[in-house]
Amino acid sequence: MKSFDGHNDLLARLWLSEHPDPVGMFLKGQLPGHLDFARCQQAQFAGGLFAIFVPPFDYVKNNHPYKLRKSAQAGFDTQDIHHIVFTQLDYIKQIASRSDRRIQICLSVEDIQFCLQQDIMAVVIHLEGAEVLDSEFGVLEQLHARGLRSIGPLWNLPNQFGHGLQASFPHSPDTGLGLTDQGKALIQLCSEKRIMIDVSHMNEKAFWDTAKISELPLIATHSNVHQLCPQPRNLTDAQLEAIQASQGCVGVNFDTAFLRPDGQRNAATSLDLILEHIEYLMHKLGEDQVAFGSDFDGGFISDHLKDVTGLIHLQQAFERRGYSQALQEKLCHQNWLSALQRVWHPAC
Ligand SMILES: [Zn+2]
């Protein structure tokens, strides 16, 4: 069955690659990691939200120092951030343009539906962490004009839009102050332009600030249930109720640290834990507002799933648990299409 997914970090992985042509490696099916085109096709991975992400400076410095300018010591400056974001945007454009029409950037649910029917991989461009945006939002206009349709204003570190989410397991999502005035202005603008707002990395105050300002459904592209795994990034019952009431959606994260009650990265983690989070979410949200948010190429994935090809094992687990075909279709792709429809094209 075809799967449409709420979150992957392929583009950051391509940017971190030392290979001179990482896009070619992806298209030829030779890329290490959780995703390449050959494995996506094998797994009926029909597409999803592809995140543009500026990795933390210290992570790059310690693990991929060849990506830094010689003069860069303490952090990325505005020019660096701009360069990283637009390089990743260029990668996704190249992936589509060099794919022989087998991969397409989608701007509407109609586009995604067309891709699903034609066996074309559907790409929605997402920005995870919005520090590239200027206070006048000119860069947002540029990115939107080039296909951006979804933004998570914050990743875990503080930026001009909010105070981030820095707390170690176990912890409630209440980790400090919420959105800044600029953050509130960004939410207002995205709500007006109907650019999807991702609450996945928001702390609790930023989540409630967003809920108050935005008229769009609340979407968590890759987060799980706090009651089952008390990561600060997982969602409390009160947050799930707000998401339910807003007609939003939660994409279940496959990273074992967001699934397990002990918050560990553990390769032996059973796939049944993913089903436990799905079932809890369906209990709170109903079966129309739960979907996938794999975190492929960004998260720590169990050996039982391994990579994108493991989606077939997840579907086998659905079968064993007796999920109907109709329910599997909703979880695997239909719920994302309906959620994006409600965000981007509300009924007049
Ligand atoms: Zn993330």
TrEMBL record:
One of this protein's GO BP terms?
proteolysis
Q: List, alphabetically, the SUPFAM superfamilies matched.
A: Metallo-dependent hydrolases
A GO MF annotation of the entry reads: metallodipeptidase activity
Q: PROSITE patterns annotated for this entry?
A: RENAL_DIPEPTIDASE_2
CDD domains assigned: rDP_like
Quote the InterPro entries the UniProt record gives.
Metal_Hydrolase, Pept_M19
Q: What is this protein called?
A: Zn-dependent dipeptidase
Q: Organism source for this protein? A: Acinetobacter baylyi (strain ATCC 33305 / BD413 / ADP1)
